[in-house]
Amino acid sequence: MSEMLATFLASTPLLEEAWRLCSIADTTFPGAYLVQQIGSVAYVAFSGRQADPGSDQSRENPARLDAEDGGLFAPLYREAEKPIRVHSGMLRLFLSMYQSLQIQFASLIGKVKSVVITGHSIGGTTASLSALWLLCYLQSMSSPITSVLCITFGSPLLGNEALHRSILRERWGGNFCHVVSKHDIMPRLLFADVVPNHISKIHALISFSHHCMAAPHLVVASLSSQLVDDVEDIFHCVLKDLELLAQAEEPSENVFWPFGSYVFCCQEGAICLDYAASVMKMMYLMLATGSPSCSIEDHLKYGDYVGKVSKHFLRARNFQEEDLPDSSYEAGVALALQSTELVIKEPVEDLCLSVQNSNLTKEVAIRAKDCLQMARDGNKPTLIAANLATKLSKIVPFRIEIEWYKFYCDEADDQMGYYDSFKLKARWKRESRINMNRYKLAVFWNSVIDMLENKKLPHDFHRRGKWVNASQFYKLLVEPLDIADYYRAGKHRERGHYITHGRERRYEFFDKWWRDRGIPEEENKRSKFANFTQDSCFWAKVEEAREWLDNVRSESDVKKRDLLWRKIDLFEQYARKLIENKEISEDVLAKNSSFSRWMEDWKELKS
Amino acid sequence: MDSLPLGEEVIQKACSIAMEAHNYPEAPWRVENSPSSSDVFFTFPGSWSVADWFTRLPFGEIKVDPSKLLSPKGKDKVATSLRSIGRDELATVNEGFLKRLEMILANPSLQSEVEKAIADKKQIVFTGHSSAGAVAILATVWFLENYIKPEITRMSPLCVTFGSPLVADFIFNHALRRENWSHCFIHFVMRYDIVPRILLAPLSSMERELEQILYLLNPKPLFPRQGSTRVASQFYQTVMRNASALTSHAACQLMGNANPILETVASFIELSPYRPCGTFVFCTGNGKLVVVRNADAVLQLLFYSTQLCSENELEEVAERSLNSHFDYQSELRDRLKMQNAVHLDHLDGLPLSSNGAAAENIATSMALNELGLSTRARLCLRAAGEQEKQKLSNQQRMDRKKADIEAGLAMLEDYKSKCAVCQVGYYDAFRSSKDEDDFKANVKRLELTGIWDEIVEMLNRYELPEGFESRKEWVELSTRYRRIVEPLDVANYYRHAKNEDTGPYMDKGRPRRYKYTQRWREHALRMPVGSSAESSFWAEVEELQLHRRTRPGAFEEIRETILNLERKLKEWIDGEHISRDVFLEGSSFTKLWKSLPQQHKSVSCLQGQINS
């Protein structure tokens, strides 16, 4: 499956076209970028030779994006739970080009339908930042540019796990395609916990690769002996830290993290993965089978790799082993494994060496297989969300019964409204049933929140209209009953008032989902009262106002009395505004509701 | 040939007639009708000009015009069958080939010959080689749409093509299978013949070469051919690259790959809309035949069977890709081999490697080897088979829910008659929802909504078998559902004044489960579009009431609508599609009608119904 996707990508002209422009940018546009229009697609290619961004010790402390971007990437961090950090040198590099880029893109809008942004090496991170900025920018306007695709070749990492999560949340994961050759050190470099004395070595490495990009025809063999040692150090350092990371569970804020899809290219084939944990494992496993010198060569050989994978479609490639598993699933994994070239190749001549080696390669092959299977299962959140939707439809009758209870109370002779009826008659038969329903609904929604917090649901779950709407209706209808229950049981005397001390966390989630849904509040004039009071905490406010009103009568201290009076006044203004806008439902105004009785008492007190 | 609806003689005859037609390029069509034979063959000459293949960029494709050639004639406003019914998406066909057929039918001579054959009760066979095959396919659809009717003929035509390019998209195939027409189409394809693959590539990718290639393929060239190898291998690579992108994209979807990059990248390139339809017979090149019916599998085979075994084969295969376009007659000469054709029916159990096959699979295994299918190719075929199986199991799952639906409908019908006993229409009872029964009805309504919305979702994703929307029991069940439950949805909509936020029910609020199922019935009974709207009757009443309330003096504005509604209501009452509770005293409709001007009421067609 991961392999079929790579076959698809390689059969399109996009990879070859992008690489062609990257290599031109590398040789002839150092420190800059190149723009070319092909049909209705604009290609923007960043040169891999850029002013060295790593000159400070920024690996230790990547920059907080929201502190340094001047608001350019606001949609990314607006909803982020943890701060997004990116490599500060790379961010500075992008910002230094930003003005000219902005003009460039403005001139493309209207001329093209889609944009491919690409770059080799450090040009790749600039390409990623440009694509992220363009996506943020296009989000705020209706633009004729419908698709943006970022293709990088051997790009270093850009940011932390929070960046990865934000990109998933915005559903931009599918806009990034990182091509990584089998042993290339560059995309793996920032996984390493580099100590300061490595920095000069990395500099040497980067300037060497710049040198090679400028003159791609020269032979790579001209490594100086000093550089060979440096590379060896870096290689082992990266390998060690990558191994640790590939096994780690919880990433820390400062650790660099992959995002988007990764296409791993080998001589024999390619695979495409988008599950971050699998990407890191594959990065490790492939590097582990390489050597320091090929880890540099591979950074400069993308032309070869792209040319090869783009021709794979012509030839039927068969599975080379005897024992092909018969299940389609297992066979698919076996084929992908073959493309990664991590399977055992026997026999090796030297017997003594081969025992050791084959143990190692076996180990690698087993772990690679795990990694591919994990990538396949990484899509489970989508499945869980689908099952949850079925469960949601199963609990609908409970909600409907409560809804019907509300309308029944509206029509009832006692004219109390459902809030007061429920509060007063808690042990009656009908109310007990409603209470049971309330309880079942709470269990369901708590389980949703629980899954969300345990990252079992898709990252954009709370953006999906179905769930935003369902949770909002639930909240408006049922929260008043939660409030009634709270005050009936006298919990406010033990714990304090509902809004600050008794409100269940789920409602705060739902508030946020509703606020963030990105639809501007319309000034919609209602011709009749809303079906549900639009402020689900309205009754809790009534309860507090009731307390103030009771206290104001008995309060002897003039100052305190004044304060209470002012609070009551404010509440009245707030309630009147809701009524005026018809944002409350009829039950609030029922003759015997808590609110109506409060209003009467208040009028009496004022007069 | 086992389980194909035609014998070897017919195939051989069709092939020789189809090839011969190229010798008479000036005759737009030919007929072979010998008094001694029970078959009549219609055939067409091929076309070798780029303009006939591609009328426009990127693929020369056009949506079927619902009012034209490929729609039923006569009865007004009956929709074409070449669409998905619920989603109401029209099929796409190649415009150039369609134009050729239009040109032929502009002259009534073909029609009268066809009608003569019907009168003689002969088996009609449309056949063609190369692009003439595409014309034969469209002609067959024209015949099916216009002549297969109880009053004309029940005898299915046959369509036999040889090396035909693809002619239409997946909706076309979907419609053919739904109408049970698919078995009429038999397409022979040589393993390396490039022609059936050409339309998988966009014109822009091969504009220069295509002209030369079509020239090389013309059996009657004006000038001698030369220097074909270079062009051929260039052309072969272009077509294969595009076919690879298309088939790997399709395979990713078959395998359920959810990586969003798939669709992002697809939006950057041009993927062919054309898909196979009908039964394909692949000829391996040494007389062996492989029969495949699954359209997804055929698409994968079109690509994988033409792949190279090693890179140095390129020139040889590229030449064969042109030459084998003319090998059909010799390939189909041997009757014995035709009788031993291999059927790839159980795709999900195909052997994955070329050597390890169980004994009962030997013939299949050999056939797959002779088509040069790699493990990857076999995995794709399996995925196609698994998807077909999944569709069937989805259908079985929904079939099991029929009992739940029946029980729900029975409960709501009971609710309806209870209301009638109290002299209230259930529409109005539900609209005011005062009693527990109303609440229970609402819960039932929502339970049923869940089931039907699931069906609609699956239809939208084409996850049910093609025939689902025309299965009699489901058309009937859905009609019952629509008639009893949609009024409750309308009542709920206006009770909560959703029209103030969203707009009138019919324009903005009507759920797809009712739109889709209304189309099911209209299609099954070949009714005019929109004529089975009885279930949304109350929505019209609500809007008219609103009009009476807000603009009481402006009767003229709604007079036509009222007249129309009265006329339709009378039909629906007479046909028992709507029950008489609409006329109860106090029903919303009675109130509306009574508010109308006296002079209208006195001549209304409902006059006797309401006053009594």
UniProtKB/TrEMBL annotation, chain A:
Superkingdom of origin: Eukaryota
Cellular component per GO, a single term: cytoplasm
SUPFAM superfamilies attached to this UniProt entry: alpha/beta-Hydrolases
Location of the EDS1 EP domain: 401-604
InterPro entries: AB_hydrolase_fold, EDS1_EP, Fungal_lipase-type
Location within or outside the cell: Cytoplasm; Nucleus
Protein name: Lipase-like PAD4
Annotated GO biological process: defense response; lipid metabolic process
Membrane-crossing segments per the record: none
Acyltransferase in keyword set: no
Keywords: Cytoplasm, Hydrolase, Nucleus, Plant defense
GO molecular function: hydrolase activity
Lineage start: Eukaryota, Viridiplantae, Streptophyta, Embryophyta, Tracheophyta
Every Fungal lipase-type domain range: 83-191
UniProtKB/TrEMBL annotation, chain B:
A Pfam family matched in the record: EDS1_EP
MF-aspect GO terms: hydrolase activity
Fungal lipase-type domain location: 42-199
Gene Ontology annotations for the cellular component aspect, listed alphabetically: cytoplasm; nucleus
Record InterPro entries: AB_hydrolase_fold, EDS1-like, EDS1_EP, Fungal_lipase-type
GO biological process, one term: defense response
Subcellular location: Cytoplasm; Nucleus
Domain EDS1 EP: from-to ranges: 411-606
Keywords from the UniProt entry: Cytoplasm, Hydrolase, Nucleus, Plant defense
Protein name: Protein EDS1L
Species this protein is from: Theobroma cacao (Cacao)
